[in-house]
Amino acid sequence: MLKSGLCCIRTQNVVYPVLPDEDEETTVEPSTEAPTEAPTEAPSPCLDGWTLLIRDPNSRCIMVIINPNTTPTDADALCTSANAEAVPSGVYSTEEYSIISALTKVANNGNDALLILGAMRTSLCEGEEITATCTQLTSFTWTDGTPGIAGFAAENWAENRPNNGGKIQDYLIVNTATNTIDDVEAARELDGVVCGMPAM
Fold it and tell me: Which of 28, 123, 125, 191 has a beta carbon 3.0–4.6 Å from 113's, enabling a disulfide?
């Protein structure tokens, strides 16, 4: 603060006093104005090691876990071992398959993999091959609550799939080399699982 009626100039929160005439007696007190703090970065909605998938309305965090010889019936326990809230993940859109493929290469030393997804054959289509009722869009449902059927769109399936070979292929996997999905049986040994949980 400046006495004797002096004014001051403010530039970017720095106060510069206007110097008085040499014969005028003044007292300059130190400024008590707190410096402007830098903006803090928002916390990540996912834990370390998990990747955010932006979804409307509820985004998810996913992780690719590579664990050779994993069967579809092992998938739940494998996800829970990573986080108590994690379950095998559904796929919301075609674009998410590309994200899963990229994460797989990171987790698997640059290699692709056959990974279990969070899906089951619907009760209506158990024991059924492709029919007018059991189509690519209706044969499976996401077990983690992923909304919609875009992940089951025709372009996402391997050729002539799902075929329910032996009428026991009630689980779903993704081949990250081709970003295509396929139906498999419970005993099929695979490379790992895609796990997901709610974003914070």
Answer: 191
